[in-house]
Amino acid sequence: MQPKKRVTVVGAGIAGTWQALLFAKAGYEVTLLESGDPSLAQAAAYWAGGMVAPDCEAETAEPVVVRLGRRSLDLWRSYLPEMPVTGSLVVAHARDRADFERFARLTSGHERVGAQRLGELEPALAGRFRDALFFPNEAHVEPRRVLRLLHRQLEAAGATIRFGTTADPRRLDGTVIDCRGLAARDVFPDLRGVRGEVALLETQEVALSRPVRLIHPRWPIYVVPRPGGRFLVGATSIESEDAGPVTVRSALELLTAAYSLHPGFGEARVLELGAGLRPAFPDHAPRIRIDGERIAVNGLYRHGFLLAPALAELTLAYVQNGTRNEEVMGWS
Fold this sequence. Notes:
The protein is α/β, with parallel strands linked by helices. It has 2 domains: 6-70 and 141-189 and 282-331, FAD/NAD(P)-binding domain; 88-136 and 192-280, D-Amino Acid Oxidase, subunit A, domain 2 (D-Amino Acid Oxidase, Chain A, domain 2), CATH 3.30.9. It has 8 helices and 17 strands. The longest helix is centred in the C-terminal third of the chain and has 18 residues, at 304-321. The radius of gyration is 20 Å and the shape is globular. Helices cover 29% and strands 26% of the residues.
């Protein structure tokens, strides 16, 4: 019996976790190294919305992101059958109809629902919008919880996870998969950080069963339900590498937008205000760079939970069979 081939993954965020998981399930001897602690509070995933929404993302994302996202949705459902696939909704106030119609033209996989059907899907939004776009095949996860679940799956598959361990991928032996995010600028000089800001709210005045996106020309937001009457309110990306606290202006815009979606958010408790930096390339598309047995996966931008499973599948196929995907892979 031949010994298992060893694979080391550096970075235990969403990208590295999925890489480690698929290799471990395929029978490799996997070690996952992470410089931070098990909370992963320093990772981009910590502040993520956790939406697996390939059809919605077609509004601004490259076609490869949408295609990989659809494959990722299948992988999420396979490895996490309890993941809620309740779809997502897109709404807009009357003054923003032009942007709403543009969103409808640029995306697919949705049905336009009237006010009555919207009220049936989300009673909390009854009478608030005249129609909506319903994307029935989309899903969402709670990032902090789901990373713990995936790490448990990893350990059950025989992998080793070492937190508090800083590693230079160039100094490790064997097959090494570099998922360090912004720390990998030594490999990707054109990598940049894109700021994303969120608020975590708690209220019993609003109940939602799926993510809702509110179209707005200046501060479009998404509201993602969490267990226990909690909601993550997030904004689109900001071209800034400032990893500091959320500003007063940003907080006001996030909370005002949430209030405009439903006035019940006016009485919500603000549990957290935070910001994370997402690693991105100029074209906002992901890359897998291969240099012998060194493989670097990066540039997931704001699509970490959408892309990580499919990118891991591509990496595994390359290591196992030499299968190449020219859309995202490059060689040194």
